[in-house]
């Protein structure tokens, strides 16, 4: 039995991945319904595909929690020791776990993105919901990349912290609070924010988007990088952190 198969069985044998996927879908599609369902008259005609993605970012947070739990739960119950005894190459074991979780995250990201678009299309039938521009295609399919890389980021944090509460706190507070508060630092705050990982992930998804009812013609660049370079930068953060985590897991006691 391959390590990929083993990790897939381990992941789906617990309830947390199922609940996290359900919550991510409900948040993403439910908030898309709220964002588009209350648009009437002239406002309905101004609904855009970008507006339907209002809740997909929150779904991303839930998937990060799922990814972290996939690692920290094993440390909590001590099953990671059995896994390391069966597979002495710890880095290979954890890398296969990462592949399984990241692949699942990408699938959930696509389902959340297109599901939200479908709900918006249903609730705002008079709006132009066609996916026409490169930015819109990048937004719809790009959720898979961002979800997968976010899962890698979360697994790396889980390996390093090894405690569910601590890992989840970092994964939620960093993108939602820390990166948002950086501009409050005098002189250097704005520059620091431009180089944070999740700000660049947001730039990849939302850069050059028609935000419709948000009041702007297009989302302006919030980082120093173009959208695709912003994704590469976000990937470098996730992969770099994973390399550090795998090295640490290979050297310290389980």
TrEMBL record:
Keywords: Membrane, Transmembrane, Transmembrane helix. Coiled coil: none annotated. It comes from the Bacteria. The keyword ATP-binding does not apply. It holds the Pfam family ABC2_membrane_4. The chain crosses the membrane at residues 18-39, 51-72, 93-117, 137-161, 168-185, 228-249. This is ABC transporter permease.
């Amino acid at each position: 039995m391959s390590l990929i198969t083993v990790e897939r069985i381990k992941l789906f044998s617990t309830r947390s991945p199922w609940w996290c996927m359900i919550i991510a879908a409900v948040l993403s599609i439910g908030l898309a319904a709220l964002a588009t369902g209350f648009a009437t008259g002239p406002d309905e005609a101004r609904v855009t595909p970008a507006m339907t993605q209002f809740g997909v970012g929150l779904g991303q947070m839930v998937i990060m929690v799922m990814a972290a739990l996939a690692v920290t739960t094993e440390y909590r119950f001590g099953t990671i020791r059995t896994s390391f005894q069966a597979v002495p190459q710890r880095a290979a074991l954890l890398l296969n776990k990462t592949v399984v979780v990241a692949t699942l995250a990408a699938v959930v990201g696509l389902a959340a993105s297109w599901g939200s678009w479908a709900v918006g299309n249903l609730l705002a039938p008079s709006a132009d919901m066609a996916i026409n521009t490169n930015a819109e295609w990048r937004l719809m399919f790009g959720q898979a990349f961002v979800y997968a890389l976010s899962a890698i980021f979360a697994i790396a944090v889980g390996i390093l912290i090894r405690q569910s509460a601590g890992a989840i706190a970092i994964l939620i507070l960093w993108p939602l609070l820390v990166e948002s508060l950086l501009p409050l630092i005098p002189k250097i705050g704005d520059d620091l924010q431009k180089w944070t990982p999740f700000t660049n992930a947001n730039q990849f998804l939302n850069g050059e988007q028609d935000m419709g009812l948000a009041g702007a013609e297009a989302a302006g660049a919030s980082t120093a990088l173009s959208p695709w370079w912003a994704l590469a930068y976000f990937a470098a953060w996730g992969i770099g952190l994973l390399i550090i985590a795998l090295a640490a897991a290979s050297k310290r006691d389980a």
